[in-house]
Amino acid sequence: MNKNPTSIETCKTRAIFTKNARTAWAKIISSASGQEKKKILLPSYIGYTDREGSGVFDPIQSSASDFVFYKLKEDLSPDLEDLQQKMNSDIDIVLIIHYFGFCRTNLKFIRKLCNDNDAVMVEDCAHAFYLSTNPLELGEVGDYSFYSIHKYLATQTGGLLKVNNGQLSIPEIHGHEAATASVVEAYALANFEQIAEIRRINYRIFFEQLQDIQEIEILFELQNHEIPQTFPIKVANNLREKLYFYLMDRKLETTALYYRLITEISEQEYPTSHSISKSILNLPIHQDISMDQVDSMCAEIKKFFKTH
Ligand SMILES: Cc1ncc(COP(=O)(O)O)c(C=O)c1O
């Protein structure tokens, strides 16, 4: 018996810090597939921009994997019937994305479906910064889950790859695929509970102030301990673009995730995804935003709808 601990593996989360979420996802694909070409079942709401490409789809294309999409419902949760229909023994990896930090599906059902078909289940938590160890919670159900640190903390880069299945090894990463020391420091020093609480408070203010605007559909009502990434709304009457630029002119930044879907997701086959893509607007609720700033943005949004 040693007088001091000698194994850093004891009581350690089985995870590695990566350069960003897409690096983690690419590592998962290559670990799960080895040398063979594999087939990935994916949600049909994946976007891209000219500047950043597609964080979800680029690693799939780089690995030359086959892919097939499953349908999503109006709240971006998987259409379980379609998922089940497309699931078969050919599918090697199933990706679940917890859009904007929300998970309104039956993860246990998907877990069982993956087990029954011998598929690896992966949770994309790039928008969902849950670091729980409760085995039934978001980020803990998949064989792997991955996170985007720079979408949550004020860092330029950073990702995390978590291996929940004890039978799977932690992928090896090379120097250029790892997170920088400053990202790891920001992560180690961050007060995640406080950050989550500020996000919830800002979210609730948006909800209260915008719920009566007819042209706005709020995607999610916040439940107890959910940690939102943004406040997603659908804007009716093709007014999304106008509202986006109206706010931008007033130095109020928003995003539209995803205003442009990858071309592999056709409107004909996935009309719900396209209709969400055309109307979505994500309002910021992050920890740097004060309640007063949320109030001002709400006031501008109300003003906009009085005149449009
Ligand atoms: C759902 C989702 N997954 C993964 C990524 C990739 O994140 P990162 O920029 O950390 O590679 C993004 C963003 O691009 C995303 O929106």
Automatic annotation (TrEMBL):
Stored SUPFAM superfamilies: PLP-dependent transferases (SSF53383)
InterPro entries assigned: DegT/StrS_aminotransferase (IPR000653), PyrdxlP-dep_Trfase (IPR015424), PyrdxlP-dep_Trfase_major (IPR015421), PyrdxlP-dep_Trfase_small (IPR015422)
BP GO terms, sorted: polysaccharide biosynthetic process
GO molecular function: pyridoxal phosphate binding; transaminase activity
Alphabetical list of Pfam families matching this protein: DegT_DnrJ_EryC1 (PF01041)
Keywords from the UniProt entry: Pyridoxal phosphate
Similarity-based family: Belongs to the DegT/DnrJ/EryC1 family.
Official protein name in the record: DegT/DnrJ/EryC1/StrS aminotransferase
Organism: Limnohabitans planktonicus II-D5
Taxon lineage: Bacteria, Pseudomonadati, Pseudomonadota, Betaproteobacteria, Burkholderiales
